[in-house]
Write a structure and sequence with these properties.
CATH class of the domain at 404-532: Mainly Alpha
Helix content: 40-55%
Distance between the termini: 68 Å
Radius of gyration: 36 Å
Oligomer: single chain
CATH topology of the domain at 404-532: Serine Threonine Protein Phosphatase 5, Tetratricopeptide repeat
CATH architecture of the domain at 404-532: Alpha Horseshoe
Strand order of the largest sheet: 1-3-2
Number of strands: 6
Shape: globular
Largest sheet: 3 strands, antiparallel
Structural class: mainly alpha
């Protein structure tokens, strides 16, 4: 519709618009062709570039990134400014692209635009090799010659000034691989980059900072790495990581390559034994993204397949974790140590299982990987994949004699992990294969405890249907109902109650599930639990075994169930007096407590209240004020607030009147202004 409207409105005269109605494009292909014909010749080059970047993009491009991509000129070391304005990106393309204002990404207005470009317009677009030249030119900008940023503020400023940098660093290799490697211009620009230690270190910093989350220790340590530290990531690491096997062969097939090829002169590529800042060799760098050809070439050239990095990881660990089955086969075929352990004790099988890579797991098992190997925490591969919910891998491991009830150093079994993660299908497979359903970990928790605490109601149902002990207690005496109630998982609480969970089961401190729900303020759970209590005495007993806070949170629900029951109110009222909790109740401003005490036949006028005015020191038992800005607990009576507070340092507006149903004291009645 947009294209048809533009087609009509583009006419020079109104009468021409009417005539054009009969010539409207009837399909998307015709519409796109008409749009491209309408684009001014002086804008066509820019439009083609915009369409090219979106056509070849590895991920959606943000408008700032696209504006900078358009401003790169081959052979120049800075952006060509001023940049194209954001609104012009859409205007120039006449409806072929649009900008998502929420994500600030630029995209084709319809998926058929890309299909049309692929079939009918690709010759007018930039090629992948053209894109590679732009990326490599960007990496050779003067700003990166300055090397890595010294701190996070400088880095943020660099990324703000050069918004295309992260995209370029992450994806330049995919545009360069294969066809780009054969292009002499591409090789020349890449070699120029390799000759600059500052540029290499700056790009490596961006790569690492993107790789690690903001909260990680490794990201924090990166600010301590200078140019020399970052340049241990050699050009050979770069070629391996990007899978540039054609370029790699160029520098290795002839011993005199660096002398005879002008592009390569003056570049220190490093060796197969060079280690980066984490101790990783080029072979490991190629194994992570799974570049099979260059892995094979490096092994043929003498790469050590058993070498470990600073974390004890081999190339096999890295390939297995990422699921690169062909690389795994090549490494095994070249005598890598299949059961080698990292510093944390994990094998390649742990890594593959935890990542859910079933084909890699099969290859490792077929080549004698130790299926029940334990890491430093006592975990097996089965436990790793069960916690992550990889049901296919769980099945393969069980079928190959994985120890189903193996416990780690904390006593967890695979069933505990699957229940914690809420993985119903894994739980079913484990149970079908004789997992011990009531096994307890070191804290006494069963799988049912874990599932109940996390609110995984379907797992809870499966466990109960398979005879899980519903009232099993952990080392603190808590049942699954305690855990579900404390976390406020209403549906789990319902299922447990429906399956005869003991409502009034007490933990080692004498607390029931109601106490936990009350303490954390889960009103719906409180109501649900209270509705299961059959008598007023049972209700009173259920709340009297703990302190004031739990009782208060339960009262509003209990009073509606037993509104006129003298036994209930007398029991609670006398208990409040016995525990001297009534003064605390006054401070809570809870009207249920007033009903509780008066319902028990207690004369409220005879009670002494500890709350006193911080100005006049007189006791206060009615409406009073608290200051929201004072870091300490201040209370003022109405009369002192009315007369003016000498010692109070904050504005009067910060004083909040606390409502209460308690009768006013004579002191307050005297100052009342109502």
């Amino acid at each position: 519709m947009r294209f048809q409207l533009d087609f009509v409105l583009d006419a020079a005269e109104p009468s021409d618009s009417i005539e054009l109605l009969d010539a409207l494009p009837t399909d998307m292909e015709s519409a796109y062709k008409s749009v491209l014909k309408r684009i001014e010749k002086r804008r066509l080059s820019t439009v083609n570039k915009i369409l090219s970047w979106l056509f070849h993009a590895q991920r959606p491009l943000r408008r700032g990134e696209l504006r900078e991509a358009l401003a790169v000129r081959l052979g120049r070391a800075t952006l060509s400014k001023p940049l194209v304005q954001s609104d012009m990106l859409v205007q120039y393309c006449q409806g072929l692209v649009t900008i998502d204002e929420t994500t600030e990404t630029v995209r084709f207005s319809h998926f058929t635009v890309k299909e049309f470009l692929y079939k009918h317009y690709q010759d007018e677009l930039l090629s992948v090799v053209d894109c590679a030249k732009v990326y490599l030119t960007y990496m050779n900008f003067d700003v990166f010659e300055m090397g890595p940023c010294a701190n996070v503020d400088n880095y943020k400023q660099r990324i703000e000034d050069y918004q295309f940098s992260e995209y370029v660093v992450l994806y330049w290799g995919s545009y360069t691989k294969d066809r780009g490697e054969k292009d002499s211009d591409v090789r020349g620009i890449l070699c120029k980059f390799f000759r600059s230690p500052g540029k290499r270190a700056a790009v490596r910093q961006i790569q690492l900072l993107f790789q690690y989350p903001l909260s990680s220790i490794m990201r924090y340590k990166l600010w301590q790495l200078g140019e020399d530290d970052l340049n241990v990531w050699t050009p050979l690491h770069t070629l391996a990581n990007e899978g540039l096997d054609i370029f790699y062969e160029r520098i290795t097939t002839s011993g005199n390559a660096a002398i005879t090829d002008g592009d390569l002169r003056g570049i220190e590529f490093g060796t197969l034994h060079s280690r980066d800042e984490q101790g990783c060799l080029p072979l490991g760098a190629a194994s992570v993204p799974g570049h099979l050809t260059i892995v094979t070439l490096m092994i043929e050239n003498g790469a050590d397949v058993c070498a470990k990095d600073n974390y004890g990881s081999t190339a096999l660990h890295r390939a297995a974790e990422e699921g690169h089955v062909e690389v795994v086969k090549v490494l095994i075929g070249n005598d890598t140590e299949i059961n080698a352990k990292e510093n944390n004790g994990r094998t390649a099988l742990h890594r593959a299982a935890g990542g859910g890579h079933v084909e890699v797991v099969k290859v490792l098992i077929d080549n004698d990987a130790e299926i029940n190997a334990r890491d430093n925490d006592g975990e097996t591969a089965l436990q790793c994949c069960a916690m992550q919910g990889h049901v296919e891998v769980v099945t393969v491991l069980i079928n190959n004699d994985a120890e189903i009830n193996a416990k780690d150093s904390e006593g967890w079994t695979a069933l505990h992990g699957a229940a914690l993660g809420g993985h119903v299908e894994v739980v079913k497979v484990l149970i079908d294969n004789d997992a011990e359903i009531n096994a307890k970990e070191n804290q006494g928790w069963t799988a049912l405890h874990r599932a109940a605490e996390e609110g995984h109601v379907e797992v809870v149902k499966v466990l109960i249907d398979n005879d899980a002990e519903i009232n099993a207690k952990d080392n603190d005496g808590e049942t699954a109902l305690h855990r579900a109630a404390e976390e406020g998982h209403v549906e789990v609480v319902k299922v447990l109650i429906d399956n005869d969970a003991e409502i009034n089961a007490k933990d080692n401190d004498g607390e029931t599930a109601l106490h936990g729900a009350a303490w954390y303020g889960h009103g719906t759970v409180i109501s649900l639990l209270c509705n299961t209590l059959d008598t007023s005495q049972e209700a009173a007993d259920s709340v009297l075994d703990d302190g004031f806070s739990d009782v208060i949170r339960s009262l509003n629900f209990l009073t509606t169930k037993f509104p006129e029951d003298h036994i209930f109110w007398e029991a609670l009222g006398n208990e409040f007096l016995r525990r001297e909790m009534y003064n605390d109740a006054v401070n809570s401003y809870d009207t249920s407590v007033h009903k509780l005490v008066t319902g028990a036949g207690i004369d409220i006028e005879c009670l002494e209240f500890p709350l006193s005015c911080d100005e006049c020191t007189q006791l206060v038992n009615g409406y009073h004020y608290k200051c929201k800005s004072c870091p300490w607990n201040t209370d003022y009576c109405q009369k002192c607030v009315q007369d003016g507070l000498e010692d109070h340092q904050h504005p009067v507006e910060d004083l909040l009147m606390i409502p209460s149903q308690w009768p006013l004291s004579p002191h307050e009645e005297e100052g009342s202004t109502s």
